[in-house]
Amino acid sequence: MPDVSADNLGLRERKKRRTREAVRSAAFRLFERNGYANTTVEQIAQASDVSPRTFFRYFPNKAALLIPDHLMEPVVDLFLAAPAELSPFAAYRYALQRVFSGIAGHEWSDEISRQQLLYTLPEAAGALYNEYIHVITVITGALAQRLDRPVDDPQLRIAAGAMTGVMMAALHDTPMSPELLFDGLDFLDAGLPLRAAGTETRHVESTGTILR
C-alpha cells in the first residue's frame, strides 16, 4: 500500500481548493457577461480549463456555484481558537468578525453579487437548504470539540441550529449584512430577551430599574 504523507495530502487538498475556486471565478465572470440562465456548465468548464466531468466532481449542479461554502473552514478554525472565556455564541461572532475583516473589497463585492443572484433563483433553494444542514453539522462538531462534549449531544445540535438560524434570518432574501448577523448572535447570546413593545418602559416606571 503506498505511503501517502500528510504533506502530499495537504498539497492535494490545496490543489483541489484552487481548482474549485478557479471554476467558481470563471463561472461568475460568465454570469456577469452572459447572465446566469445563458451560461452552461460546458462553457464554465471550458473557461476554467477543466472537463464537464471534472466540474461535476466539484459541484453537483450550476446552482451549487452560488453557495458560499468556502467560508466555513476558516470560521471553524477561528471559532476553536477563540478565547476560552467567550461563550459559544460570542466565540462564533469572534470568528465571523475576523473572517469578514479579511475579505478584500473586491472579494466582498463578488460575495454580494453571488448572494443577490442566489436569492433570485428558485433552483438554488435546494442547494441552499443542503448547505444550511451541512453548516449545522459542521458547527455541531466544532461545539463538541470546543466544549469537550460528545458530538451526539442533542443540545449541541440545537445550539448549532440556533446559530445557523441567525444566519438564515440575517440572509433571508437579501445580501449579507455583517452588522445584522452580529446583532442576531448578540441577541442569541443574551438569551433571546424578546418582550412586548413598551415592557421596559412600564418596568422602569413601576420599579425604577430597567428590565434586562
Automatic annotation (TrEMBL):
Family annotation (SUPFAM superfamilies):
Homeodomain-like
Superkingdom assignment: Bacteria
Query: Which InterPro entries does this chain map to?
Result: DNA-bd_HTH_TetR-type_CS, Homeodomain-like_sf, HTH-type_TetR-like_transc_reg, HTH_TetR, MftR_C
A Gene Ontology MF term for this entry?
Answer: DNA-binding transcription factor activity
Q: Which PROSITE patterns match?
A: HTH_TETR_1 (PS01081), HTH_TETR_2 (PS50977)
Q: Which UniProt keywords apply?
A: DNA-binding, Transcription, Transcription regulation
Q: What is the species of this protein?
A: Mycolicibacterium duvalii
Q: What is this protein called?
A: TetR family transcriptional regulator
Q: What Pfam families does its record include?
A: TetR_C_14 (PF17754), TetR_N (PF00440)
Q: Is 4Fe-4S among the key words of this record?
A: no
